[in-house]
């Protein structure tokens, strides 16, 4: 799941970013409202964490713009202001949830997962294909009920393929969903990652397979040909 974290406090950012990455999110960071706009114009995110006190503008402006474009990406706002008015303004502007600073990172992760679990969100909870099952909230994968340990990136790749079972997923789409702006991506990063994932799946008895569609992308088939 790809997340945009809009926050300017560097000390807080480091901790939050690392914890979210460990929880299986691909995290991009924007430190200003302007940077947030650029990121939103360049990519689609599964959720956003938005600090209201940004150095250039009020975070609510970003939120209102987003909702003005009928973009329903779940947004959790962070605010140090403890006034009831700010919270009400945030929720009225289309925020899905809010968290007051200071907060515990675990609480943030739990709230984000709850947002992504909402039925109106596009995200399914458990993705299945053949004998594989992927719990997108708990971030666990099983084959025939047996746990399959995967790295965060292998999981992100598998999740994106599972969301489009039986269809070719373009390489560009996968790269965009798996790697953040700051990740170093070489032309064959995705191929190497896919090779590793394929080997793990095959080695653990996956009933389907991942096909390479040369020059285009990859396709996960529920059953091996
Ligand atoms: Ca701030």
Give structural notes:
- With 225 residues, this protein is of the alpha/beta class.
- Helices cover 40% and strands 23% of the residues.
- It has eight helices and twelve strands.
- The strands form three sheets. Strands 2-1-3-4-5 form a five-stranded parallel β-sheet, sandwiched between helices. A four-stranded antiparallel β-sheet has the order 6-7-8-9, with helices on one face.
- Strand 4, helix 4 and strand 5 form a beta-alpha-beta unit.
- Helix 6 crosses helix 8.
- 32% of the residues are buried.
- The protein binds calcium ion.
Q: What is the number of E strands?
A: 12
Any idea what the radius of gyration is? 19 Å
Largest sheet: 5 strands, parallel
Strand order of the largest sheet: 2-1-3-4-5
Helicity level: 25-40%
Report low-confidence residues grouped into runs of 5 or more.
120-124
**Outline:** elongated
The average pLDDT score comes to: 88
SS-based structural class? alpha/beta
Beta percentage is 15-25%
The small molecules bound here are: calcium ion
Distance between the termini: 30 Å
The run of helices and strands is EHEHEHEHEHEEEEHEHHEE
Write a brief caption for the model.
The protein is of the alpha/beta class and 225 residues long. Helices cover 40% and strands 23% of the residues.
